[in-house]
Specification:
Layout: E1 4-6, E2 9-10, E3 24-25, E4 31-34, E5 42-47, E6 51-53, E7 66-68, E8 73-75, H1 78-81, E9 91-95, E10 100-105
Parallel strand pairs: 1-4, 2-10
Antiparallel strand pairs: 3-10, 4-9, 5-8, 5-10, 6-7, 6-9
């Protein structure tokens, strides 16, 4: 299987309801979550199984991976987790086959 790409659902303003994004399943090859927008304001929700967010390769990257348990959510620091070069450039790379990911870019 190939790496699946996921773009976060955008919320354009506060205090307005919006549909919850459909959960996308991580493949055995992983998932690239697009972090080219307001990367510091993306909420990631994980269901079904744990997911691991690998460390990025930018100036602040190279730290530890982050494992998010099923039923948990996180807002990431893009400096630590965004890939700025290589196969996952512009994305956060997530592994954990069968985990389901939902992502929302906050206003």
């Amino acid at each position: 299987m190939a790496v699946i790409k996921l773009s976060p659902t955008k919320l354009n303003e506060y205090n307005v309801s919006a549909a919850t994004p459909t959960a996308t399943t991580v493949t055995s090859d992983g998932m690239d979550l697009d972090f080219t927008g307001k990367a510091h304001r993306i909420l990631i929700m994980v269901t079904e199984a744990a997911a691991t967010i690998t460390a990025g390769n930018g100036l602040q990257g190279g730290g530890q991976a982050l494992t998010v348990s099923a039923g948990q959510s996180v807002v990431l620091d893009s400096g630590y987790y965004k890939h700025v070069s290589g196969a996952h450039k512009g994305c956060v790379y997530i592994t954990g086959a069968t985990a389901k990911i939902q992502a929302i870019e906050l206003p």
